[in-house]
Amino acid sequence: MRYKLAPLYCRPWTLNGMSTRLIDSHYENNYGGALRRLNAITEQLERLDVATAPGYQLAALKRDELTALNSTLLHELYFASLGGDGREPPEAIQSAFARDFGSYQRWKDEFMAMGYALGGGSGWVLLTWVPRDGRLVNQLAAEHTQAAAGAVPVLALDMYEHAYHIDFGANARAYVDAFMRNIDWQSVQARLQDARATAAPRPLVQPEFGDLPGVGPEEVKAMLDAGQAVQVIDARPRHYFSRTSEIMDGAVWHDPERVSEWSGSLKKDEPVVVFCVWGFHVGCRMAATLRDQGYDARYMLGGHSAWKAIGGATKMHA
Ligand SMILES: [Fe+2]
Fold first, then answer.
1. What is the pLDDT of residue 104?
2. Which residues make beta-bridge pairs with 253?
3. Tens digit of pLDDT for each residue in 253-287?
4. Are residues 276 and 187 in the same domain?
5. In whole angstroms, how far apart are CA 136 and each of 97, 102, 113, 195?
6. Mean of the pLDDT values across residues 229-247?
7. Can you tell me whether residue 183 is helix, strand or coil?
């Protein structure tokens, strides 16, 4: 199975301040070169007897394969990023920039500064959609790799010298400025729309607890920081609790095996957050029991471990 070449996406004669000679050379030598390397490496890998080949040989081929594959993908995105008038992006992108960067101008300043920073060096500046959080980030990708896992780049600025030296010599800044004047925002918007349809990584699901409401540790911390009235209960099993020395600051420990003895002491008009060690069955069962008794109880996602993982305060317990 061979990787197929993609035709040049932008129309080189329409570009503003970037010559057809530059685009030709870039497409034929660098993009074409990456694709040819990728196919040659793929062939070598297919021929390799992985049972007997030394590990370093396989590792080197795999590294080269990733570099060539990413170079191919990013060059295709680069040529698809060009061909517009570079003026203000459409409303949908403007509002995404406002939410994730503060403003279009702030996004632009950061993106261009990242390009300037790579002048005299090499790498890619990418505007990337992160499905996990449903947000945009600017990222640097050196060695044609280092792209954010599971994310979708929608705009690519090539900062390898071959991308500009024919027209701009060593003047990387002038090249970055010219790139900005040629961004095809309509195509970026279309790609962003596709990227937004990419599903986030699947969350943890505990079907045995149905739609039992959980609350993230960040939200619990915000409630406590704001001085909101909330009853936080550490319901880690006794044997676990007794062999650790710390407890979440602001939490009270109660033995989950003896819930009938302590649940009556809780206030019905104040929300309850209960958690166990990792947020699985103990904390969930406890929240379900308290809800059955009429309390506004939720379990804390990820339990005590998650509280520590966000850097939440803890104290020693007796
Ligand atoms: Fe390139």
1. 97
2. 234
3. 999 999 999 999 999 999 999 999 999 989 999 99
4. no
5. 8, 12, 17, 10
6. 95
7. strand
- Number of residues that this document lists for the chain: 318
Confidence of residue 111 (pLDDT cuts 50, 70, 90): very high
* Residue at a domain's end among 196, 226, 260: 196
* Statement to judge: residues 283 and 158 lie in one domain: no
Residues with CB under 5 A from ligand 1 (ion): 30, 158, 160, 163
Domain hosting 98: range is 12-196
What is the CA(78)–ligand 1 centre distance, in A? 8
Ligand 1 centroid–CA 135 distance in Å is 26
Verify that 41 and 169 share a domain, yes or no. Answer: yes
Cα 99 to chain centroid, rounded:
16
262 occurs within a structural domain: yes
My answer on whether 60 and 114 are in the same domain is: yes
CATH number, domain containing residue 267: 3.40.250.10
pTM over 0.85: yes
Ligand 1 centre distance from Cα of residue 12 (Å): 15
Give the tokens for residue 274: 């209960």
CA of 15 to the centre of ligand 1 (A): 17
